[in-house]
Design a protein that fits this description.
heterodimer, A: alpha/beta, Glutathione S-transferase Yfyf (Class Pi), Chain A, domain 2, Rossmann fold, four-stranded parallel β-sheet, 14 helices, B: mainly alpha, Fumarate Reductase Iron-sulfur Protein, Chain B, domain 2, globular
Chain lengths: ~300, ~180
């Protein structure tokens, strides 16, 4: 059993709820335990940095200090939280004057920042600590022949974390292949979904989402496998109607977070996999795979 | 060292966290060429950096530039001088908000509503902050969002009340303490 300090981030309590369900659903069968940080608060995200850079760093540092106390790796499914936590942790290690200021603020509430927390993304943990082969070994309901476009998004791979490729990553492709699916070429797999502007500049956000759906669809995808980021997932799953009415298109491309896809392939039901929460319903697409006999379906080795 | 006065716009920006390398920009334009939304910016990222260095504060902060940054970090991943354009852009946003600039976008209000939600609840309460944003900007635009809101609610993705987090008090103390240090 592997243990992690888990930081869901605010969106996982609302728009990201289906993805959150799937993460908890797969933890046990994959011998992982995500222990939620007690009484966690927002990471600040980009908007707070745009309001006050210094206060934003204090907000982020609270979570880093809480994680340090657990002695476990700090794991988050949200790419925005991941970038902010990772970036702030790096910045505080470099900028000693800023780190002193943060220590002063944290001391007021009995917390300490030492820079010992290791910030990680759920996707990176699944890939590195478990790996496609280990996942493939547990698949009982393979997605054989399902053509998927794997959307990594921006902040899971950028600015730079020293793993996967910041321009053309393929970890989700490899994990999707481990589930039996066939990843298609998807040039825009790490381009932006525009989530941060979806409220205030919806036309711009919908324009970016349209490009992604178009690119996935043109390359023959029947579905998308997305990062666990609740913002990316909502943009692709929830905004197809908005894209269709603006661009007179007819996209109906189920978007499964990688953890939802893993949950389904592990044989979990729709509800437990969080798939009932998807707005673009994947039911019709996935039904044929439900009838597969687990014994026959179980692959001997990874399909990667 | 907070007693050192700001001398120029450039100094003001360079003093912000992760913005110190702005002087090393060679104006190659990779940031503008990589930007996901550059076509919407009045002045694209490369020009934004040039304008900071030329002291064109008012022109820049009154424009819609910077507010279209979606934090995709393509500029930052590709910058050959590692100046972190995305961080500089968010730093500029914080200067614009603090100094009361009124750029032609409602993203400023969205940021404020988001930040207020963190202060009020300790976590961002999505439904609440969006409602506040629409009430402050254009309540009729909220009607357009209604079908989406209904979808989210039906799929169990939109709780109608915020969670109460004990850490909220701690967070307020940290925010206040960080605010005492000023902007350097």
């Amino acid at each position: 059993m592997k243990y992690y300090a888990y930081y869901p981030g605010c969106s996982m309590e609302a728009t990201g709820a289906p993805v959150e369900m799937s993460i908890h659903a797969i933890a046990k069968p994959l011998d992982m335990q995500f222990i939620e940080l007690e009484d966690w608060t927002c990471c600040g995200s980009s908007p707070y940095a745009g309001v006050d850079k210094f206060k934003a760093i204090g907000i982020t540092a609270r979570t880093l200090a809480q994680a340090e106390k657990t002695g476990l790796d700090l794991v988050t499914p949200c790419s925005s939280c991941f970038t902010i936590l990772h970036e702030t942790n790096d910045l505080l290690k470099e900028d000693h004057r800023l780190a002193d200021r943060v220590r002063g603020a944290l001391a007021e509430v009995g917390l300490a920042y030492n820079g010992t927390a290791r910030v990680r993304h759920v996707v990176e943990v699944l890939y590195n600590d478990l790996g496609p082969d280990a996942i493939a070994a547990k698949v009982v309901r393979p997605l054989t022949g399902l053509r998927v476009a794997c959307y990594h998004g921006c902040q899971q791979v950028r600015p730079s974390y020293g793993f996967d490729d910041p321009e053309y990553p393929d970890w989700l492709d490899k994990m999707a292949a481990a589930l039996g699916a066939s990843p298609v070429n998807f040039p825009l797999k790490a381009r932006c979904c525009g989530s941060s502007l979806v409220i205030s500049e919806p036309a711009t956000a919908v324009e970016l989402i349209h490009k992604l759906l178009e690119n996935a669809s043109e390359n023959g995808a029947q579905a998308m496998i997305t990062t666990t980021c609740p913002l990316c997932h909502l943009a692709l799953d929830g905004y197809q109607h908005a894209v269709n009415s603006k661009y007179r298109t007819k996209y109906n491309l189920p978007a499964l977070a990688i953890t939802q896809a893993i949950a389904f392939a592990l044989g979990l039901d729709f509800k437990t996999s969080g798939l009932n929460g998807n707005i673009t319903s994947p039911k019709k697409l996935l039904e044929p795979f439900m009838t597969a006999q687990p014994e026959q379906a179980k692959p001997e080795t990874t399909a990667a | 060292m907070s007693d050192i006065p700001h001398t120029t716009f450039l100094d003001e920006v360079a003093a912000l966290p992760a913005c110190g390398k702005i002087n090393e920009c060679i104006q190659c334009g990779v940031c503008s060429g990589s930007c996901s939304t550059a076509t919407h910016w009045e002045y694209p990222p490369r020009k934004v950096i040039a304008m900071v260095r030329a002291g064109m504060k008012d022109e820049l902060l009154k424009s819609n530039s910077i507010w279209f940054c979606v934090s995709c970090y393509l500029c930052t991943a590709r910058c050959p001088r590692d100046i972190k354009p995305a961080n500089i852009v968010h730093g500029l946003e914080s200067i614009a908000i603090k100094e009361g600039y009124k750029p032609p976008t409602t993203t400023t209000t969205m940021y404020r509503s988001f930040a207020q939600s963190i202060v009020d609840h300790g976590r961002v309460y999505e439904f609440g902050f969006m409602l506040k944003y629409f009430l402050r900007t254009n309540p009729f635009a909220a009607l357009k969002m209604l079908p989406m809101a209904i979808q989210l609610f039906r799929h169990g993705r939109m709780p109608l009340a915020p969670k109460q987090v004990k850490g909220k008090e701690e967070l307020t103390t940290i925010i206040n303490k960080m605010g005492e240090g000023g902007d350097r």
